[in-house]
């Protein structure tokens, strides 16, 4: 059996052009194509019978409108994000023009909890 660690070390020293050439040589020798799986997956993604999308596990909590009580919203943003007063105020003020993320990449439960906190303070919130 070949020393796999030695093979890995040798492959690690290849340049991009050498790696591409190696790929072509292996495709010819074994009669396979690296592009085949991509070509098979592409029609399924756009087709009507596409597989169901994976369930989203990370969510972003966005303020779409700080509402009339922006001071309360700023306090909540500070508590959630640990931002300073100036940064929290800037985030809330910027949300008047376009939705701004308060927290990104959080779980569904945490996103719902944060949304409830911000809405209680008077903000309009969206989860994406």
TrEMBL record:
GO terms for cellular component: ribosome. Residues 5-49 form the Large ribosomal subunit protein bL12 oligomerization domain. Keywords: Ribonucleoprotein, Ribosomal protein. Residues 59-128 form the Large ribosomal subunit protein bL12 C-terminal domain. The keyword Ribosomal protein applies. Gene3D superfamilies: 3.30.1390.10, Single helix bin (1.20.5.710). The keyword Ribosomal protein applies. It holds the Pfam family Ribosomal_L12_N. Belongs to the bacterial ribosomal protein bL12 family. PANTHER family: 39S RIBOSOMAL PROTEIN L12, LARGE RIBOSOMAL SUBUNIT PROTEIN BL12M. NCBIfam families: L12. Homodimer. Part of the ribosomal stalk of the 50S ribosomal subunit. Forms a multimeric L10(L12)X complex, where L10 forms an elongated spine to which 2 to 4 L12 dimers bind in a sequential fashion. Binds GTP-bound translation factors. Forms part of the ribosomal stalk which helps the ribosome interact with GTP-bound translation factors. Is thus essential for accurate translation. This is Large ribosomal subunit protein bL12. It comes from Sorlinia euscelidii.
């Amino acid at each position: 059996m070949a020393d796999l660690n030695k093979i890995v070390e040798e492959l690690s020293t290849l340049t991009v052009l050498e790696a591409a050439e190696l790929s072509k040589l292996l495709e010819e020798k074994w009669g396979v194509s690296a592009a085949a799986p991509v070509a098979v997956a592409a029609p399924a993604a756009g087709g009507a019978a596409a597989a169901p999308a994976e369930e989203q596990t990370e969510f972003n909590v966005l303020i779409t409108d700080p509402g009339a009580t922006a001071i309360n919203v700023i306090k909540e943003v500070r508590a959630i994000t640990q931002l300073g007063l100036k940064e929290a105020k800037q985030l809330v003020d910027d949300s008047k023009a376009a939705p701004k993320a308060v927290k990104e990449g959080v779980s569904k439960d945490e996103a719902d909890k944060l949304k409830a906190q911000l809405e209680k303070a008077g903000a309009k919130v969206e989860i994406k």
